[in-house]
Design a protein that fits this description.
By secondary structure, this protein is an alpha+beta fold. The protein is built from two helices and two strands. The protein has helices spanning about 70-80, 85-95; strands at about 1-5, 10-15. The protein has a two-stranded antiparallel ribbon. A hairpin with a 4-residue loop joins β1 and β2 (about 10-15). The longest helix is centred in the C-terminal third of the chain and has 10 residues, at about 70-80. It is elongated.
């Protein structure tokens, strides 16, 4: 997250944008990825800018949906996690540890 502070005589405004540096779980679950939203301009310290109508946007993330066992196995194979013999052990560990 990057941000800019804008000052005038009456108020201080923080404008920020989002930019993903590491995709994390969204590399696999791409439909969960939030789009980058960077400020539209690069601000120069000491320069003067006119403000427009303020706008507030609120967003929230949510946990990814559950995978079926076959989807999990497919993703594990795709990303080189486990072998044919160890995949059931990994799935059992996920269940025992209450990750599902």
């Amino acid at each position: 997250e990057g941000g800019h502070y804008i000052h005038d005589r009456r108020r201080r405004v923080h404008m920020y944008g989002l930019q993903s540096h590491r995709p994390g779980f969204t590399a696999v679950l791409h439909w969960q990825k939030m789009e980058d939203s960077l400020p539209p301009v690069q601000f120069v310290k000491g320069a003067r800018y006119r403000t427009r109508e303020p706008r507030l946007t609120q967003k929230a993330t949510s946990p990814p949906g559950y995978l079926t066992e076959s989807e999990l196995i497919t993703l594990m194979e795709k990303h080189g996690i486990g072998t044919d013999a160890s995949i059931p052990v990994h799935i059992n560990n996920i269940c025992v540890r209450n990750f599902v």
